[in-house]
Design goal:
The protein is of the alpha+beta class. It has a single domain, classed as Gcn5-related N-acetyltransferase (GNAT) (Aminopeptidase). The protein is about 30% helix and about 35% strand. It has a 7-stranded mixed sheet with strand order 1-2-3-4-5-7-6, sandwiched between helices. Helix 1 crosses helix 3. The longest helix has 16 residues.
């Protein structure tokens, strides 16, 4: 089957598309395991269309869009942030804040294409590592990141609505 995935950097005019895609894929990924109330509160207060649109074009953010033909099927958001205390000793990093794939395209190479480009972009920026936070109950994502060489180095609390959840902090060293 012909399954070409193309990746490009997001542009400011992509902001609304990214915001709606973000909300859709987040909901698809986590609604079954969380209460409706917590999901609605999180989407309204912390994952609003307005706040997501504001991320596009920020100097510290790199957003990659994955397309299959002309259909957006995934995206990744990396950002320059202060390292969490779990990244010790401190190194030059990028946070992989999001890597989301449309539910109907999971398992079709979209996540791998995005991850490969995230690593390339991080290396172009002379970063020594990528790090991320992943919900410890998201076994598929943990397995995916582990396959790509990320190792657990700690944990932090992520608040979804009113529910404090445990995110594992994972780091991938980028060997040059």
């Amino acid at each position: 089957m012909f399954n070409t995935i193309t990746i490009r950097l997001a542009q400011p005019q992509d902001a609304a598309t990214i915001a709606y895609f973000s909300r859709k894929t987040f909901y698809e990924s986590f609604a079954e395991q969380n209460s409706r109330r917590d999901m609605e509160k999180f989407l309204k207060l912390q994952f609003s269309v307005k706040s997501l649109m504001a991320e596009v074009g920020r100097k510290q953010n790199t957003i990659l869009l994955a397309y299959r033909f002309h259909t957006l099927v995934g995206y990744a958001l990396m950002r320059e942030t202060k390292n969490p205390p779990e990244i010790n000793p401190p190194v030059r990093t990028l946070e992989l804040a999001r890597l989301y794939v449309d539910k109907s395209f999971i398992g079709n190479g979209v996540g791998s294409a995005l991850m490969k480009e995230c690593i390339t972009q991080a290396r172009l920026k002379a970063k020594e590592a990528l790090w991320l936070g992943v919900w410890h109950e998201n076994h598929r994502a943990v397995e995916f990141y582990t396959k790509w060489g990320f190792q657990r180095c700690g944990s932090k609390i992520f608040i979804l609505g009113d529910d404090p959840q445990i995110d594992w902090v994972m780091k991938k060293d980028l060997q040059f």
